[in-house]
Structures are given as C-alpha cells and as structure tokens.
Amino acid sequence: MSRPLLPALVGEALGTALLLAAVVGSGIMAERLADGNAAVALLANAIATGAALVVLIDVFGPISGAQFNPAVTLALAVRRQMPWPRVLPYIGLQILGAIAGVWLAHAMFDMPILQTSAKLRSGPGQWLSEIVATATLLTVIFAALRTKSEARLPYSVALTVVAAYWFTASTSFANPAVTLARALTDSFAGIRPQDAPGFILAQMIGVGLAVGLDRWLRRVTPAPLPE
Fold it and tell me: How far apart are CA 188 and CA 151, in angstroms?
C-alpha cells in the first residue's frame, strides 16, 4: 500500500522516538528500582519495550508501516514492498527520531541530555547474537506478510523482541538506528560508540540471511488460500 510520504516520515520519526524513549527510559527506571539486581532490571526493560512496540506498531502501522528500523526498511525494499526512493528518507528519519527519543528519556529523568555510553558490548558472542536477533525479527515479519496475518504482527514482533532480550547475549538491538542512538546514553541500555559499528555490521548480515531464507520459503511454501 502506498502511503503519503510526509505523514509516513513524521510517523517513522515520532514512532521511533517514542520507542527509544521507552527502551532507554524503562532501562533507567529499572536500574534505579532494581537495587542492583540486573535480572530484574532486564526483565522490566524487556517487558516495557515489548508493550511499547505493540502500541506503537498498532498506532503508526497505518501511517508509515511502523518500521522504526533501517534493517526492516532495507529488507522490505529488497522484497519489493518498499519503494527504493523512500529508503533513505525513512532511514534518516528513523535515526533522527531514535536520537530524539534518547534525549527525551534523559530529560524525563533529569539526566544530562548529551552523553556517550561507556557500556562494553563487543566480541564474537555479541556479534553472533545480533545476527541471530536481526534475522529472527525479520523472519517473523516476513512470515506474517507471507501468510497474510499482518493483524498479529504487533504482537509477534513484540514477543520476539522480549524473548530475544533474554536468549541473546547482546539483549537484541537488531536495529541500526537503535544502536546508534543507544551509543548516546550512558545508562542501562547504552553501548559504547566504538562497539556500534560491529553491531550494525552483524545486523546487516542478519538482513542478508533473513532475505535469503524468505526467498527460499516463498519458493517452497504454497500460497495461502483466499478467505
């Protein structure tokens, strides 16, 4: 479905900003209240992120497609479900929105707006986790599109992200815009700026794997019967 460009760009920027405000803000709140219990803090952060995703995808889906993620935008363009001329504007607004969302979270918790993270997130296990997290997320999205079950997509995406917080060593960034923005917060959700390129490269590998798997599945899976 072709959506008017300006509302779509506003929707992507606003939705991504609110997503990052939820990710970073819930991480700050969780860390403050968990009294040093990292497991409790991560659980709170994951649940808040999943809840936000359900609402944001439901609200902004009709406006912009609720992609909020350059990896999703690129993958949909390769899949010919996103016009290529819209890819760069979408990605640009996703990144700007993500940064604005981090700054909003800082402001809400009376923290310095401009920060960089000191949180180490690097190494083969972390990079493999980002490949797996990104490929898994995209495979879930593609499956919903392939089987015409888009109505369940907000819940499928949210549950995938919440689960991947726990089954990946990286806590599942799976999103280049999120990765860049989280390098700008020295909080529970942060990542050192020098670690972000490794995450983004791993995410792009995950995109390639998911697109390849999707092409194979579309060849071997029968089309759904008309309702």
Answer: 32
- Spatial CB neighbours of 71, under 8 Å, sequence gap ≥ 6: 134, 137, 138, 174, 175, 176, 203, 204, 206, 207
Positive or negative, the CA dihedral 36, 38, 40, 41 is positive
Give start and end residues of each alpha helix (H) in 65-123.
Answer: 70-78, 87-108
Give the pLDDT confidence score for residue 149 in this predicted structure.
87
C-alpha to C-alpha distance for 126 and 122, rounded to whole angstroms? 6
pLDDT at 224 over 80: no
| Backbone dihedral angles phi then psi of residue 12, each to the nearest 5 degrees | -65, -45
CA distance 195 to 161: 21
pLDDT band at 1 (very low <50, low <70, confident <90, very high): low
Torsion of CA 18, 171, 148, 218, to 10 degrees: 140
Q: Is the pLDDT of residue 146 over 60?
A: yes
* CB < 8 Å & 24+ apart, contacts of 191-198: 191/117, 191/119, 191/121, 192/116, 192/117, 192/118, 192/119, 192/120, 192/121, 192/122, 193/116, 193/117, 194/122, 195/120, 195/121, 195/122, 195/126, 198/122, 198/126, 198/127
Q: Whose structure tokens read 């000191």? A: 118
